Amino acid sequence: MNCLNKLVLCFFCLIFPVALNAQVHPNIMLSKANVPAVRKGVQNYPLLKTSYNKVKSEADKALKTIINVPQPKDGGGGATHEQHKKNYLAILNCGLAYQISGDQKYADYISKLLLTYAAEYEKWPLHPKRKEGHEGGKIFWQSLNDFVWQVYVIQGYDLVYDAISPSDRKTIETHLFLPMMKFFTVDCKPTFDKIHNHGTWNIAAVGMTGYVLNKPEYVQMAIKGSAKDGKTGYLAQIDQLFSPDGYYTEGPYYQRYALLPFVIFAKAIQNHQPELKIFQYRNQLLSKAISTCLQLTYTDGAFFPINDAIKDKTYESAELVYGVDLAYADIKAQPELLDVAQKQREVIVSDAGLKVATDIAQGKAKPFVYTPQLITDGPSGNEGGLGILRYGNNDDQQCLLFKAASQGMGHGHFDRLNILYYDNGVEVFPDYGAARFINIEAKKGGDYLPENKTWAKQTIAHNTLVVDQSSNFKANADAAQQQHPDILYFNADPNLQVISAKETNAYPGVEMLRTTALLKVKELEKSLLLDVFQVHSAKDHQYDLPFWYKGHLVDASFKLNGKTDNLKALGTKYGYEHLWLNSEERAASNGGYVTILNNKRFYTTHFTADSSLMVKVLSLGANDPDLNLLESKAFMLTAPKVKDQTFVSITEAHGQVNSVNETTTGASSTVSDLKLIYSDQNQVKLSFKVKGKIYSYQINYQNKEKFIQLN
Amino acid sequence: MNCLNKLVLCFFCLIFPVALNAQVHPNIMLSKANVPAVRKGVQNYPLLKTSYNKVKSEADKALKTIINVPQPKDGGGGATHEQHKKNYLAILNCGLAYQISGDQKYADYISKLLLTYAAEYEKWPLHPKRKEGHEGGKIFWQSLNDFVWQVYVIQGYDLVYDAISPSDRKTIETHLFLPMMKFFTVDCKPTFDKIHNHGTWNIAAVGMTGYVLNKPEYVQMAIKGSAKDGKTGYLAQIDQLFSPDGYYTEGPYYQRYALLPFVIFAKAIQNHQPELKIFQYRNQLLSKAISTCLQLTYTDGAFFPINDAIKDKTYESAELVYGVDLAYADIKAQPELLDVAQKQREVIVSDAGLKVATDIAQGKAKPFVYTPQLITDGPSGNEGGLGILRYGNNDDQQCLLFKAASQGMGHGHFDRLNILYYDNGVEVFPDYGAARFINIEAKKGGDYLPENKTWAKQTIAHNTLVVDQSSNFKANADAAQQQHPDILYFNADPNLQVISAKETNAYPGVEMLRTTALLKVKELEKSLLLDVFQVHSAKDHQYDLPFWYKGHLVDASFKLNGKTDNLKALGTKYGYEHLWLNSEERAASNGGYVTILNNKRFYTTHFTADSSLMVKVLSLGANDPDLNLLESKAFMLTAPKVKDQTFVSITEAHGQVNSVNETTTGASSTVSDLKLIYSDQNQVKLSFKVKGKIYSYQINYQNKEKFIQLN
Fold it and tell me: Residues in domain Alginate lyase (chains A, B) (predicted)?
């Protein structure tokens, strides 16, 4: 498309239809023409009925409270913070209750609440609890929350637009929404034009407000950036924030969060300017992003908690209710999405929610299928990625996440070639996630704790190699952001799933290669987790390979030698200052094993290497004056002073403890004789026995056709 | 009843009917006359059908294995141990499968297996892994397991009796059962005549074998003791092992275990000698014991883990399936028991199971009701007891267990006046239970660990007062067994449930009184846990009152001051050697608070006392070379040097964290201004505010009518 065409399209899309459609309200998630059908659906389809009842109950609860628009003063989790959050949710809930019930009282409540905001908003200065390095809001301590506030509120306003008197609308728009637009686009211009999730929320708020208030200028800025040149704005964000596989570089926790403004604004664009075909944009990128976000969960629905992530977050979160409903109704009606919607136990009370609830009621759902896959990172898909290996059904699945993605901006962790391992519904080798008690005022106002930086981000907090007790890139985020690992190989063959990647920049002069597989052998029901971590350097280094584990260590090939008193911190920086050294033993030269009992199943990790190893047992908690750190335990393989090193491990899931019946079966691993036979830059060769049968396993780095040979 | 009458009864009951009925097989859990009805029931009633399918599937699995009767050599959890356990279960399952299906192959399997045992048994010496202080078995490392083996096996044998040829029966009886009877009654005579759960298993095995083999002599010994004088034996055990409230002195975990031989043998007696009216014995004691056992669980079905207890044990365990089915079918058809049977998801394939499954299918079940109650201990009910306070429905119940029971023999812990607190489906102030990885061979053969003695039994491991860093009775079990606390008061008023008890022997010259309440005030939805621990002494002592907690400490009234390095053990003995001192702070003179976040709910414990307090934060793990101890955390109130001391605390459950929606409500406690106004040996008076309203709470030890006054 040449420039002239672009110009014509812009004119056509952004000016004319906006002016034309702007008179219709509501027209975002719920569109006027669909209201009668949704009203009927609320009577007939269980999921929509439940969802509406919840909305209505929340709306009724709001109506019983006194209008409360406090002068902003508290940080995250504090009283004024929570009150303003309550208010925006009340506005959206009341808007929906008004549309479905037709009861004017809900509209009146919104009108009254917004008039109160309109009477106050312009007087409020920048939030007193704003922090350096974070753009402050007016209602909340950071501008991000103000944007979120408006994304909800403008939807509620759109829903009751026709039920508010023109004069009240004028007051609300003149003294609340328009000053807010000025704040968002002028005062917060840096964020508005930033390719970042905070920017997406800002843009969505501004663009949707533009549609609802019939201000095409704002819509245009939102889609094309403040300079309207397409270098920033919504389309640029879709282009740059996601990989071709729909991966958002900050990781799943933030992907979920980032998705919401993307999909809500997309729906607003679709309704007001269908000719933009926004859901088709970049090869249906938004659909891919939603689907990838779902694949980035374990079978309990919890997102893989890489980078700064709150660990209890699942795909039941509101953002993915929006995502799944819209993906199904507006992009592609995949029946597997209905399974997720059922697990979410709610739909949006909306056009899309109606369709989802109807089709579920008609029995169209099919089980959601988790698929082993490689998800590339980077706008062009060439900046590393995430490998996901899965074995077994959703009710008892082994799952291995291999992180070879790029740094993921400010929320990224220094965890190149990190692995997370799940089985039996629980974490086996977990990731700490973020050090944060979200919304707990007493814990630093609910914000990231100091230990997020000193611990959670550091390499040692992850299941990956640490060189010389330091972190990747010496924990320098800017340096890390410049480099990414490279994917060497990926194979989703159900019986031999493999992911291999290389990282050469994290430690100067050190090349790291990791190849991890889920290998199903016929002797066993579950697959084996086979992990080869190879490191090359011209100089001597200390190599530490920790395995953070859940459960209790019940057996080892060596005598445990727990420190009985005077527990010491393991180091002084890069997270080592937070580790207690609980025990330390030299493993026999040919390796050894450690057995963990976790959720009534045993996990034995056999290990070996080409130099002799120390095995350290660690727990978290040193140098933690505020007792912020959560209980965490690891065993760690250490090669104290070597150049090249290959760590090999096989983790077998075995046996069962039934504590109700007091029976134990399969407490001993059936894997034995793990041997590293050969290892150089081209090849690694190892062998092991399973129930006496010998397996030989070879990695050929230079041969993509026969990357793995198994005999 | 005079002696002559007794003699007549004995003669009538024990000799004549046994001889008469012995020809009928089967006649224990499943009786011959009922077989057609059970066969039909297996087709018609879902719970019986599922249960039978499980039995049959296990039986079919057994039939596919090679007969394996290994020479006994391994301890608990080891291969021969587990194989002999498998064998007895196979025998019972095959016996049932034979009766229901009529298929001879199941009987043949049992016959073949028992003939193999008969060929081996007499050659086996005492078990090589037997331990000092434990009576060794022949099949298992302790005789107990041999008794259990036979309780199962004799039932299976009874089920296929008629399907085994007389000559094979003769071989089995002559070379297995009769030598075993000799072993049980002669070699294991000390246990046979011991008033103890091991004795019950022995007696049940012997008595049931007596019935099935038509050897009245053994039945008589079982019921009346080896001397047949009633001083020991089954009836003496019912008299002495249970309190009038049906409490078994070792605690719920062992009560569950002890119950099984009681109820199975009772059923055998009932079928062979109904005129003994065994289920009516001692005012329906067995029914009470089953009901009490159920009441000694939290709403998740897990037994209160006082004394040596494995914590995952619930009323789903096989023993209570037997107990509940028999209690319903043979003693009293309480519809609430059907609710428990439904939660157990199985019934015994038996006369009783048929009745339970039928009545469930007919919709007769009513919800099981947990009732606040005092359960007395001691054969006469005057040796202290357990107070259970409960507030709220089963789906979100606050529950307080107050332990003022007697020592409970060898498995008892030194935890006089201990409390356990539950809420929201989880432990809030837990009990460690036993230090044991049951059936995990690598952990001391699955037996109690050394830390059971050095840690789990010690006073400091519990939520009760420790004087001078020592344990109750200096951890001398024999001394402790001689003394019991006294219950001062109990009230089950729903809005003010109170338990109060006194212990004067645990520490010489120290009187301890504890009064704990669940108090519902109208300002709050949940009740408050109000705890007053008073201690009197003529001399100075150090008083430590730990609160072991689950969750994470998120707030405190004082600045936390976590030890950053060189973590030290808190003491050198009585369990203190296992504690790390994580932080230590002086609380302000008027007390303070600590807030824990546990399972998304906050628990704030406000505390005060009549002398200033230190608050220590502790974690478990010092002096644990084998890494046997489980993660555990406590905050502890310490009065370093005082004579009299009153510790007052109020724990409020409040607020909610929703990490899917990222919302937090009610993070701050609404209780304030806790004040200890007055305290002496007659009275304690305190006041506090809830949402600004002042409450005054007074304990009058000398006034049972007005023991608690609340204004």
Answer: 67-295
CA distances from B200 to A577, B139, B141, B288 (A): 56, 18, 18, 18
* A565 → closest Cβ in B77, B317, B568: B568
DSSP B27: B
**Distance spanning both ends of chain A, measured CA to CA:** 55
Residue B680: phi, psi to the nearest 5?
A: -145, -165
Instruction: Return the DSSP state at A391.
Output: E
Q: ipTM value of the model?
A: 0.89
Residue A3, judged by CB atoms within 10 A of its CB (0-12, 13-18, 19+), counts as exposed
Q: Which residues of B touch A553 (CB under 8 A)?
A: 627
Q: How far apart are CA A530 and CA A608, in angstroms?
A: 12
Give me the domains of chain A, ranges plus CATH numbers.
3-361 (1.50.10.100), 373-710 (2.70.98.70)
Q: Out of B622, B630, B668, name the one closest to residue A564 (CB).
A: B622
CB nearest A660 (choices: B77, B317, B622): B317
**Rg, chain A, Cα only:** 27
- Chain B residues with beta carbon closer than 8 angstroms to that of A346: none
Q: Which chain B residue shows the shortest CA-CA distance from A561?
A: B625
**Pairwise CB contact (< 8 Å): A442 & B554:** yes
Nearest to B662 among A438, A442, A561 (CB): A438
What's the rounded Cα separation, in Å, for the pair B208 and B261?
Answer: 10
Task: Residue B451: name the closest of B440, B442, B441, B443 by CA.
Answer: B443
Partners of residue B439 in chain A, C-beta under 8 Å:
657, 662-664, 667
Token pair of B632, please?
């555990």
Which residues of B are known catalytic residues? 254, 411
**Is B582 in Cβ contact with A621 (below 8 Å)?**
yes
Q: Summarize pLDDT for A138-178 with one digit per residue, the tens.
A: 999 999 999 999 999 999 999 999 999 999 999 999 999 99
At which residue do the structure tokens 């002890």 appear? B258
Q: Concatenated DSSP letters for A565-608?
A: S-B-BS-SSTTGGGEEEEEEEEPBTTBEEEEEEETTEEEEEEEE
Report, as residue numbers or ranges, the catalytic residues of A.
254, 411
How many beta-carbon pairs below 8 A join chains A and B? Answer: 155
What is the rounded distance in angstroms from the CA atom of residue A405 to the CA atom of residue A487?
Answer: 9
A638 forms bridges with which residues in the sheet?
A544, A614
Reading the block at residue A630, the tokens are: 């959560």
Residue A516 CA to residue A387 CA, distance in Å, equals 10
- Which among B555, B567, B660 has CB closest to A313? B660
The tokens for B662 are: 């990222």
Give contacts of A625 with chain B, Cβ < 8 Å: 560-562, 564, 583
Residue B14 has pLDDT above 80, yes or no: no
pLDDT digits (tens, 9 = 90+) for B639-648: 999 999 999 9
Q: Which residues of chain A are within 8 Å of residue B552 when distances are taken between CB atoms?
A: 437, 630
A552: chain B residues, CB-CB within 8 Å:
437, 630
B562 and A438 in contact by Cβ < 8 A? no
Instruction: Retrieve residue B689's tokens.
Output: 């505010």
Tell me the per-residue pLDDT of A305-359, one tens digit each, with 9 for 90 and over. Answer: 999 999 989 999 999 999 999 999 999 999 999 999 999 999 999 999 999 999 9
pLDDT in tens, A520-577: 999 999 999 999 999 999 999 999 999 999 999 999 999 999 999 999 999 999 999 9
**3-class DSSP state of A651:** strand
Biggest CA pair distance of chain B: 84
Contact A623 B664 (CB under 8 A): no
When scoring A257, A317, A343, A565 by the number of chain B Cβ atoms within 10 A, the one with the most, hence best to mutate, is: A565
Q: What is the 3-state secondary structure (H, E, C) of B320-343?
A: HHHHHHHHHHHHCCCHHHHHHHHH
